[in-house]
Write a sequence for this structure.
């Protein structure tokens, strides 16, 4: 039928409401996407958090998925489903762009940053032990293959968006072995990309500089280990108006999962107050990945126009008064 099938993981809490908004807007915009909804309620198999097989099969079949926030089940020894998804499909690079929305004022203007986060290891490896009561150890695992993969992805990405300058953000001054390996790997990979500039920055210094003048980062692509990317992407979101606005793409060799960076917001879930922008912009990253650029532009322009049109058409996180439904209708009107 000339449509692309995409796996939809609606997610928990506000995930249900924001996915519904995406579906309504896509239908109104005639985007050639058919959604295949899957349930990812985790199973605990041999003490390991496991995705339902139908969900895994769907993503492997469609190669592209859009995902709302998933709450981490508490108390039963589960690991985060968000991490389980990244690991299951070896989504080794997490791309997180962050761009000011014209017409939504924050203390920062013209923010246009992008960071790429290693997405499978580091402090997220889940290797922790109690040695004796009161003494614990959490292992930060850094491997050369995973570092090489995300760094090479970074170089390719930098070329593709015409920002031929990689900044490796690290703390090798303290984490001499782990971040040291990341830094050394970057120097090696850089030899394959003579046209891309490579520089290095300490994580604390990048945080300082980003909050002082983010425009210094508008022509570079930052690449960093997992936990640093987690923190720096929230920091970047804060510059433009918060987590309700920032998209992301979890990229693997074959499969990609696009997701909003924010959580399931149980405090406002079910009340019709959630901002679907982050999921909508994630879906635009997805459309561009599928070479549906015109559809991506159409949705993105309508979303940005809606936010710029004033507080009556913005959700509460952007100091507006709009419900999710009202915002959705405005986006449709602006298509
Ligand atoms: C993110 C989130 C996740 C992370 C959580 C929900 C596990 O904060 O995507 O940034 O820590 O990576
Ligand atoms: Mn995070």
């Amino acid at each position: 039928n000339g449509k692309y099938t995409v796996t939809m993981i609606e997610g928990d809490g506000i995930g249900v409401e924001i996915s519904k908004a995406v579906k309504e807007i896509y239908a109104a915009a005639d985007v050639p996407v058919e959604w295949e909804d899957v349930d990812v309620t985790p199973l605990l198999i041999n003490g390991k958090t496991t995705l339902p097989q139908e969900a895994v099969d769907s993503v492997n079949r469609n190669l592209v998925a859009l995902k709302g926030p998933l709450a981490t089940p508490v108390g039963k020894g589960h690991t985060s489903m968000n991490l389980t998804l990244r690991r299951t499909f070896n989504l080794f690079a997490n791309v997180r762009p962050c761009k000011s929305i014209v017409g939504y004022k924050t203390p920062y203007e013209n923010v246009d940053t992008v960071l790429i986060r290693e997405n499978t290891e580091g402090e997220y490896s889940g290797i922790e032990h109690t040695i004796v009561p009161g003494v614990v150890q959490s292992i930060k695992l850094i491997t050369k293959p995973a570092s090489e993969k995300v760094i090479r992805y970074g170089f390719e990405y930098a070329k593709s968006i015409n920002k031929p300058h990689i900044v490796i953000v690290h703390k090798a001054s303290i984490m001499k072995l782990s971040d040291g390996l990341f830094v050394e790997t970057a120097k090696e990979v850089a030899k394959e990309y003579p046209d891309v500039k490579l520089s290095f920055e300490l994580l604390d210094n990048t945080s300082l500089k980003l909050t002082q003048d983010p425009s210094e980062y508008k022509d570079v692509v930052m690449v960093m280990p997992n936990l640093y990317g987690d923190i720096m992407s929230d920091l970047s979101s804060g510059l433009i108006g918060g987590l309700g606005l920032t998209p992301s793409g979890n990229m693997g060799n074959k499969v990609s999962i696009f997701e909003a960076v924010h959580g399931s917001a149980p405090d406002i879930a079910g009340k019709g107050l959630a901002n679907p922008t982050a999921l909508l912009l994630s879906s635009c990253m997805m459309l561009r990945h599928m070479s549906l650029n015109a559809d991506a532009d159409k949705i993105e322009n309508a979303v940005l126009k809606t936010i710029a049109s004033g507080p009556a058409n913005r959700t509460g996180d952007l100091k507006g008064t709009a419900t999710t439904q009202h915002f959705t209708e405005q986006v449709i009107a602006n298509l």
In short: The chain has a mean pLDDT of 96. The radius of gyration is 20 Å.
